[in-house]
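Notes on consecutive records. When two proteins share a document, each keeps its own sequence and its own token line. Never mix them. Below: protein one.
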Amino acid sequence: MAANLERVTERIQRAAKRAGRRADEITIVAVSKTFPAEMIGAAYQLGLRHFGENRIQEFDAKHETLVGFTDAIWHFIGHLQSNKVHRAVHLFGRIDSVDSMALARKLASATTTEAKSLPVLIEVRLSEEKTKSGVRESELASLAESIGELLPLELSGLMTIPPYSADPQNARPYFRKLRQLRDALCQQFGRALPVLSMGMSNDFEIAIEEGATEVRMGTALFGARASVKP
């Protein structure tokens, strides 16, 4: 894992340099879903602090052995079912996949009960893939405006997952579009939305070139992921 992280860090540095950016502007979110708590602990010891999970029950089982990692930030990165909102708010410090006002309201209610604030990202669906979650581009501004007024949620930015392609360059238009949408929202509402969460193990360098501030990586760090039944 140390060698993997070193390689990833070098690639981030090169991509940032090509884009005229600083590498310390980019946060690695280690996608630890399906990997055991011991591997998360190893990643933590290597200096990683942001971790992404997409199954409430799976992370709940790991969480007890990770409570000592007080400065770790746990991201929920999957489609969140409404009946699991309260548990998600309790377990996670960030929800990166808000895609509707109904979900946002439930998150706000649960967050109030927990007496904390909750940074969130809006997931935007920029392709026509039916398997993808996310708000459509045409509905984004309305949702962003509403969430921006919904305390104690803190709207921090946008997230997207482009269609998978063996050629990472095919993801570039989607990453560029998300940045353009974010910039338009900032101008429209006169507020900062600093986070662009986009790019994974196969295309994170392209995402960085297009403005990603967070890249989500699993296999590039942890190795091949075992198949998991849904």
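Protein two starts on the next line and is unrelated to protein one.
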Amino acid sequence: MQWRRSSTDSTPDESTIEAIITANVGIATRFGAELRQRLFAHVEELLRTKRWEAVAGSELTDEILVTLAANAAIPLLSFDLWPYRQVKSIIVRPTASMSGGLRAGPVAGTYTDQPIGIIGEASPHSGPVSLSWDAALADSRRPAYGSNVVIHEFAHKIDMNDGYADGVPPLRGAALAHWQHVLDDEFHRSEGRDSDAVLRPYAWASPAEFFAVATEGFFCVPTQLAAAKPTLYAALSDLYQQSPAVDWLPIDSAG
């Protein structure tokens, strides 16, 4: 049985959205009033305009819908939702799905066929974003851990706007040249740096994963990223037109 919520279904009211975000979306505790209103508007639009599907026994409650939509909205708070135009549907599973087959191993140049739990996946072009609710909720409530599967998969969709998941978002001119320089310096190098510890090791699986993991770090642990990798932080700040390490409420006063 597959449960769908179409764009014609009603959306939760603002008080419900606010209560769920307050309870579940840790990043949003650092938002001032204006940023929260932008977040609410994006959440409502994502719920209205995207197709949400529950599989493997999931049920699309308001809590699930609002929590996932709020995290997906965070990278685009300075823009409209145009970069997500190719996201036609979001598929929600209760937990990780198992995947097998030969794939790259944990060390460069190695391969493995061991089964792996997949908690998120962004399909190319107009394909769906698939998310595991248990992992998404845990990440959403604990941004200090530096991971967020929803932001990660939607960052892949931003990366794919130019047709490729290559770690190079859809930039032009000097901004594109600057990002490519940053990617060369941070990813295409033979030796590690102490500053690499600010990002999850999965960042070095491929340029596309580097971009997605760096985006997670930018929104989950912005102060740490800015201190460890100021050039990378500045490039992401230019891309997303946000500076969470500077503009968001301090952690001690948030909430």
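For the record: The first helix runs from residue 14 to 24.
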